[in-house]
Design a protein that fits this description.
The protein is an all-beta fold. It contains no helices and 6 strands. A 6-stranded antiparallel beta barrel has the order 1-2-3-6-5-4. A hairpin with an 8-residue loop joins strand 5 and strand 6.
Length: 89
């Protein structure tokens, strides 16, 4: 179970139209990203860019942004199935 306090990775959401939404926190793994920022719409073909501590970046293509309603003490969230891709130039 992932809780909001565990979301410490800095990510940028890049919408398919190029719009960037910065300042999001998430838990990033190779195939899944979890975020509690449900005030933004996350859609297939969007990208999530993780800002690494060493200054590098990792890019993930959104495949399935599953929205979860609040329940059992866990706030609403996205559990996003992703695929790691090359960082766009």
């Amino acid at each position: 179970m992932i809780l909001p306090g565990m979301a410490k990775d800095d990510v940028v959401l890049v919408k398919a139209d190029g719009k960037r939404i910065e300042g999001l926190k998430a838990v990033v793994s190779m195939r899944r990203i979890v975020t509690f920022h449900t005030d933004v719409e996350i859609e297939p073909k969007d990208m999530m860019i993780k800002q690494c501590a060493d200054g590098e970046q990792e890019a993930y293509l959104v495949l399935d942004p599953m929205f979860n309603h609040a329940g059992d003490g866990i706030p609403e969230n996205y559990q996003i199935t992703v695929r790691k891709v090359a960082v766009p130039e």
